Amino acid sequence: MKTNRPSCRKLTGYAFDPSLSQKADTADINTIVYKVPWEDLYPSESEMDKVKRGQSDGKEYMAQGPGPVGEYVEVLDYDPTVSKFYEPVDLNDPYILAQDGLAPSESNPQFHQQMVYAVAMTTIKHFEKALGRKVIWAPRRLANGTEYQEYVQRLRIYPHALRDANAYYSPVKKALLFGYFTSTPADAGLQMPGSVVFTCLSHDIIAHETTHAILDGMHKHYNNPSNPDVLAFHEAFADIVALFQHFTFPDVLKKQIAETKGDLGAQNLLGKLAQEFGTAIGCYGSLRDAIGETESGHWKPKKPDPADYRNIMEPHARGSILVAAVFDAFITIYKNRVADLLRIASNGTGILPQGEIHPDLVNRLANEASKAAGHVLNMCIRAIDYCPPVDITFGDFLRAIITADLDIISDDNKDYRLYFIDAFRRRGIYPKAIKTLSTESLRYTLEPIVSPQTKHMFDIISNFLRDYRKEIMYETDRERIYDISQKYMGGGRHSLHKRIFMEFEDSPEFEMLTGLALSSGWANLGIRTAKKKNGSNGDIPGPSFQIQNLRLVSRNGPDNNQINQIIFSLVQRSGVIVRNGVFTGHYRPEEEKTPDGGFELWGGSTLIFDLDSLKLKYAISRPLLNIAELRRNNREIDRSRIENQYNFQNNELSLKANEYRSYFGIGLNSIMNEPFSILHQH
Amino acid sequence: MSKITSATVRMYRMGTGDCFIVKFYAGKEEKYKMMIDCGTWKGSKDHLEPYVVDLKAYVNNHVDLLVITHEHKDHVYVFEACKELFTKDFKVDKVWMGWTENDKTKKVKDWQEEHGQKKMALALASQKLQGILTDPAYREQLKTEYNGLSLLESQTSFAGALDDFNALHNSAVAGQYVGGLKGMEIVKKTIGKNNIEYFRQGDIINDIPQLNGINFYVLGPPNTWEEAKKEAGGKGESYQNNSKANEMDAFAAAVLADTGLNNDALFPFDDSFVSNDPASISSAAYNSANNQWRRIDVEWLNSSANLALRVNSITNNLSLVLAIEFEDSGRVMLFPGDAEYGSWESWHKIDWKVQCRNKKPHFTHDLLSRTVFYKVAHHLSHNGTADRLGMSMMDHKDLAAMATLDYNVIAPGWTGTMPNGALLKQLLKQTKGRLIVMSPDELYYDHPEDTIPLNDQVKKERKKMNAKELKEFKTNFTEHPLFFEYAIKG
């Protein structure tokens, strides 16, 4: 009889990081078993073919195996500080398999490899579940040659890459670099290093950095700090994922809830825990600081202050405002979910009897917290599909959460959406151009009304997208998904790019929807000219724009409703010149040399098509054009956006320049700047 | 003996760096000549000689006292560059340094060794980085990468900044580290042979025979290493909030690996975990020709920037800080070297056992409130002058200041942080424009926006002096191509 392939591989790891294993009250909850989607971790036949083919044409292909090297990630334990490789772990070793992976150990690098693999894969699993599609890494940009970019199958993970209290996702190398450092004060001298702290053993840091990589694969423009929220959003989002991933492990919560005994303020406990998760390793607390503070030994939630959102600009500190807002919503959701349980348990008095809480109640409370955390995590991840492709703000994210949630859950009987809105409102995070803060006004315009002519063009696009769906629907190979999407997006004769290029030429309505310059006269707006091959008819010049992130979304809602959508983004850039704070004119990026005071302003639009009704469901745009002027038939780039971006990048950021940045010249736009470091030097 | 009634401070304008002559007078009679530091960021012997020649003529080839504040190139380099001029036909009666230079004591020697290793690590990290960046294979690889050339450019300028820090602390021959600064060695072994005195925080010197009526108060260096390590305070404490420096021991150990030092600290794991198979899967994957773009050989060396900043701050905080008081009037001249926040903060914890004159809660505060001349620490940088515990307390109506900043001779990286806008603003306000900068020509009041030339703003601020003050200032201030001089009434 044949045994079925298991659905998951069990791997032991730290729930937090090693430091909690040394504290008596947290030691026994610090070890958990991660259930990672099963991968064979030895080469399949098709992989062996690739290996052989690769050898013959000089392109080595790395197959699944020890490392661990799987479908999504390759852990490569090279330590450049000593120029050594550490032996890779073989998770298929029978002894290792028999005991759910290696036991947690700081001194065994093979356990480190297992830990980064387990947490990275858990994070990927959460995303795939929420998004309803495969995670694909950002492609690698190529310098020259015919191909513009190439597919990257695996995120590379270097568990021991730096000797510093730092870790980051490198968008250039498509790799996670983790550092380690000695924690003793320098007095002990170089000869006596104290305990070594490994950032690759912290669940939060691994989940955080993996999320940066996943988000970069979905929205590559989110590492361009065009406004104060962009990098802060990257940080906050990565932290939200790390944080709520913790709460989806109920075992971690049970013990803590049991210990609170008669205290009904279990919501405080969750906040306190959330913060402790962050501070354990010492260098990673700031993102959670906005949640609460400890006063004379008692933790209490921090009162939201709308001034923070106006004044705090450093990405981690600013991101903490968003983390706190989402956490606040979670706590309200949790409180409401457990209100009935507490009434039952206290006979309606609200006061629990002294002593231990009933273990059943502990289980129920922990499960509710875990369930609520799962929901919040899903809401946040799903929202990513509903964000504009460039220049995101926290307000956009709120609108995306509400819109995405309305799409999948029509009846919000637990008021999740309201709690989110309230938590954002209390922190002064208001989306622009919204008159009231209600679910209805926050939702992006559903099925924008268009003229029959435009409607016809959308029909053509929708039909084209149906072909894409047919081709991709049952495709499970990530590289094939990437290739098919690329094929449909750009390049060839029948691509989406070509269709939009041709169909929407001189369509003021489409310009109004996307805010992008797609009609004649683009060159005066600082937009590069692109030439499209038109077969025997010669080349047709047109405004340059890009199509990104074509993806199929199929999700099932709780009411048995199914969502079938195709989403893609259009992005465009305009070269603008600002001298002494005043906009003076345009240049065309790449066609002309960047002049003094020149920089790029990006606009974009995320278009969501409903495949069942063949309609454009949403156009979520960050316009490049000034829409108000466009209504009066004037086409000009939005000046306020130009000036805001200029002021932010030149004043806000340069005023806060610190030693590191000023002495070493690694500024905001320096290519050496790693935007996703847990420890920002600038 | 008649009491000292006035002093002149002469700042030589050799380039960013300190070189001062302070002369003390009783009436019109010159009583005592004191020299503080002699260094600049860089400069050839030919460029520097005229200054030294003028200096020697000015003091008649003899100073009573030479003060060396700390071991940085911009404070000792000219002793190396113009060694002959200083070792021949030049007499120094006494040399003063901070206790942290007294390597005859074991504690200091141990610490010097450790600090020396960090400086060496800085030098070796810089060399390693240069080695990779000049490796033809690495450069070829980057050429094939998207944006590879601009990355190389940026990395090269980073390496340049790192090497500037290296040069500030170490001597090198043909790019190879050879040890500490030569200038310092010349002062210790030749100029100051057998006549160096070391001082601690809290020391008071009032027994110099020629200096009747003058008290020296030693404010720094701090008496503990911990205080020296603190480079910047929080908001409102120093002019900018800096991130906490990391502990770099593991990093330094890795950089120093080739030297045979610290091998115990080198490997984080047991040897048995190290793969010695050159043909292993990992090694093949890392070294494969397709995967060159994912290599990480250079990234870890970027941590050296933190090491550089830290070593730099510690050395600055070890500056010998002197407050010189005219006993009768209580007026004070403050020479803090390049002390940063950690040092400034520690001054306020000194147990002076001296009565305050100005009814301030602490004697250091009292001294600061009586300061009429301030040598700006660390070339107008953001953390060279403490805010709440420094600048804000120097509120004497006669305050004048000198700053040793010169954009013609400066490390490129320094121009980003010097001058600090907020500090400049407060200094100009509190001195009513009596701020004398070594070379104000290319400086701007609103750095880094750079729209208001510093000279214009200085003129504007000087209008705030009343007629009498302005007249006095014009009499007291002397301009010369080689130096600026300012006379201080005792």
Task: Describe the protein in words.
By secondary structure, chain A is an alpha+beta fold. Chain A has 20 helices and 20 strands. Chain A has helices spanning 45-56, 94-98, 109-131, 203-218, 229-247, 250-259, 266-279, 306-311, 315-345, 359-383, 394-408, 416-426, 439-442, 452-472, 478-489, 496-503, 508-514, 627-631, 639-655, 659-664, and strands at 8-14, 31-37, 73-75, 78-79, 84-86, 140-141, 149-150, 155-162, 167-170, 175-182, 196-198, 292-295, 298-301, 529-533, 539-543, 546-556, 562-579, 582-587, 598-610, 615-622. In chain A, β9 and β10 (175-182) form a beta hairpin. In chain A, α3 (109-131) crosses α4 (203-218) and α6 (250-259) crosses α10. By secondary structure, chain B is an alpha/beta fold. Chain B has a domain at 107-180 and 246-310. The longest helix of chain B is centred in the N-terminal third of the chain and has 28 residues, at 106-133. Chains A and B meet through β4, β5, β6, β8 and β10 of A and α4, α6, α8, α9 and α10 of B. β5 of chain A pairs antiparallel with β13 of chain B, so a sheet runs across the interface.
What are the defining features of this structure?
heterodimer, A: 682 residues, alpha+beta, 4 domains, five-stranded antiparallel β-sheet, 18% strand, globular, B: alpha/beta, seven-stranded mixed β-sheet, 17 helices
